[in-house]
Amino acid sequence: MPQDQPSALIVGTDPYAMRACLRNGITPYVVHGPHLADWGYLKLPDGAVGIFAEDPTSIESVLLALRRTGAADRSFRFLQTSDEEALVTVAALARVLDLPTAVAADIAPNFRDKWLQKRAVAAAGLDVGASQAIEDIHHLDPSALADFDKAVLKPIAGAGTRNTSVVRGLSELIDTCAEYRRRGVPQRTFVLEEFTPGEEWMADGVVFDGELRFLSVGTYAEPCLTAVDANRVLQLERFDPTEDADAFALARPVVTEALRALGLRRGVFHMELFRRPDTGGLVFGECAARTGGGLISEAVAFKFGVDLGEAAIRCAEGIEPTIEPTVRPESVSTLFLANRPGVLVGYPSLEQIRALPGVEHVRLDLPYGFRTGDTVQDTTQGVGQVMLSGRTREEVRSRREFLTRWFDERLVVVPAHATYPELRSWQRANWPETASDFRTYAEPERQR
């Protein structure tokens, strides 16, 4: 490829950032790890250049990969990532390579370390639950912790509610830390956060020159941790800026002040907030300097006509993104399609799902033969994801309930932990023509 061809260095396989680059005549050089080949679901688009790095979250691994492939000699226009775990790496890498990027190296830790993050937001005077850092759960010192009744234990730099638990008191905390150690949970440094009841909201948007340029607000059908603890998948709704003007008015100042406290000057963000059931006020939860998952990019594009991937690459280069929202009147919701414990062997086709009322977008992520454990591990688990629309929020919810039930009725999963007799009964119920009982040759099975 010619050296004068505009190019950008992208760490992580964000399809929205890659698409935005290609639409703007920029060749994305995509640093990816083993998961691209191991998982086999996402393919690099035509025009993108792949660079394999054993660990894209390691600056050493990325620099070595750039040197091996000769990409280190290219003049990239900017460096960008939407990979939560690579954020600090990319911020440091931008300094080494002298490339513009959205999140500066002195700011990036505020968006990865949840204890640092809450300390910064609390110092700005916002409502934030108390938190305590636990440096090493393998060597917990209970005497160093303040008393608490109910708290949330999570990796200090985690994502997706993975390895996150509600603990009630010190005794349960000690037991949970011991269980994590037995399970071989890779993280050692955790944060213990005050449990905040109430609705969980999300705020997604764009900041440039320290000013909030776009804001979308939504809510989860139930809080993320509640869903994971109950082995349920996530369901999300977008608020309407006119119909739900009060929600936007409540969220905007909190989001603005939180981002200012965290130091984000430009970039996209995904923020979690909780609405107190007693006062109705918003409590800061956490914030990531990236686009949100769960088809949030699709929902924002559908509802507002705003491409968050486009905004992300523009902010990375230091160019103000052109954001001209066009709000559609329809309500929109996204959801994960739930799986069941066992081996996945069948589900409805894309065409069948698309034919259902209100389905705007669908993707099926899990292949046949995938084995699902007994519990939901994080907020990203599901057979696939769907975006629904409707004339009203009530219609969207009705369609969401119907789709959830309809899909589950057609989901075929070999049950986990079943005995041979139970498996035979299951096979007979699902494929009666294939089931066979033990027979002798006493009587011919067919007439000759």
TrEMBL record:
One of its GO terms (molecular function) is ligase activity. Pfam families: LAL_C2 (PF18603). Residues 118-317 form the ATP-grasp domain. InterPro entries: ATP-dep_AA_Ligase, ATP-grasp, LAL_C2. Keywords: ATP-binding, Ligase, Nucleotide-binding. Signal peptide: none annotated. Gene3D superfamilies: ATP-grasp fold, B domain. This is ATP-grasp domain-containing protein. It comes from Kitasatospora xanthocidica. The lineage of its organism: Bacteria, Bacillati, Actinomycetota, Actinomycetes, Kitasatosporales.
